[in-house]
Structures are given as C-alpha cells and as structure tokens.
Specification:
The chain is mainly alpha-helical. 70% of the residues lie in helices and 0% in strands. Helix 4 runs antiparallel to helix 8 and helix 7 runs antiparallel to helix 8.
C-alpha cells in the first residue's frame, strides 16, 4: 500500500496562485532608461531645493559690502570736488587745501577701492554714483559771486566729515585685521586735513 504524504488538506488553496509581488514606486513595464531619467530628474529637483535653502541661509547679503561701497563712492566724490578746487580756487591757501586733499585721496584710493571690491567688483559707474550735481551748482554760483573759496572749503570739509564717519562704520563692520589697519591709517591721514575747530 502506497502511503500518502502528510500534507495539510487545504494546502492547495494557499499555493494555488503565484506569490504576490510588492508594488514599486514606478509603474511596471518601464524600461531601465526611463527609470534612470525619472530618478535623475527627481535628484536634480532635490538638488535645486537644497541649493535654494543653502543660498537663503548662507548667502545673505553682507551689510558691510554696502557700507564699503558707499565709502568708496564718497572717496571718489571728494577726489572729484578737490580737483575742481585745484582749478578754480582763487587764493593760494584754498588751492593748497584742494591739492593736499587730492593727493591724500589719490594715495589711498587703491586701498579703499580694494576693500570695497571684496565680494564684488564695483564698476566705474558705481564708484561715481555719489556725484552730487548740487555741489557743482553751488560752486558755480559761488564762483560767479566771487565766493568760490568759501563755498569750496565748506563743501569739502562737510564731505570729509561724512567720509570719516563712513570709514568708522566700515571699520566696525569688517573682521579683517588688515582692513582695520588700512582704514585706521586712512582715517588718521584724512582727519589731519580738517581744521581743529569743528565749526569751520
């Protein structure tokens, strides 16, 4: 007598179909090339999102950049006005003042522009953006009324005071010890031009 194998009576029901397959993220029947394109596109999207987040948190505009650009613009404007003074001043005292200012600003121009150039390269148009046509008009009117020297001296001293204040702002904003040293030297040099009486 042939013995029958001991098999559970309902085993045929459990094994009647193929084992169920897990569903993937992508539809079945896609070629390998199509899957590569889809995963590649998803990866690129994730990289773009991460790049935007990184830019938002780590590439915030540096307030020191704007301050240093303003400083360089003021420097350029003082140099321009001083040049006008060397050409139109009537007295030797005022001409000497204009020449001294011009030479002092020229000697420190490269250093100031170099500090303003960190993080971006300012164009000539940006450096000349502080040009004040009202100053030109005031000097022209004063020249016509034979008061050029007084108007020039007052205007250039005001500009220098504002410039020295801006140097202090940049000095406080920078973390570079070399830039601090340069700014301190420029500040000391230019401050000597001002009269001891702040009302003059």
């Amino acid at each position: 007598m042939i013995m029958q194998s001991q098999q559970p009576p309902y085993d045929f029901i459990m094994n009647s179909g193929a084992s169920p397959q897990k569903k993937g993220l992508l539809p079945s029947g896609m070629s390998k090339k199509q899957k590569v394109f889809i995963f590649g596109g998803a990866g690129l999207f994730v990289l773009l999102i991460l790049g935007a987040i990184f830019s938002l948190f780590f590439n915030r505009p540096d307030p020191g950049l704007d301050a240093s650009l303003k400083m360089a613009q003021q420097h350029t404007e003082i140099l321009r006005v001083a040049d006008i003074g060397t050409k139109k001043a009537k007295s030797s005292t005022t001409r000497n003042l204009a020449a001294t200012i011009k030479l002092s600003m020229q000697s420190s121009e490269d250093k100031i522009v170099a500090i303003a150039s960190k993080g971006r390269k300012p164009t000539p148009a940006q450096l000349n953006a502080a040009k004040d046509l009202k100053t030109d008009e005031a000097l022209t009117t004063a020249d016509q009324n034979n008061r050029f020297d007084d108007a020039f001296t007052s205007a250039i001293h005001d500009q220098i005071r504002q410039y020295l204040q801006q140097i202090r702002i940049v000095y406080d904003a920078t973390n570079s010890s070399q830039d601090k040293k340069t700014l301190d030297e420029v500040h000391t040099q230019i401050a000597k031009i001002l009269p001891s009486d702040p009302n003059n």
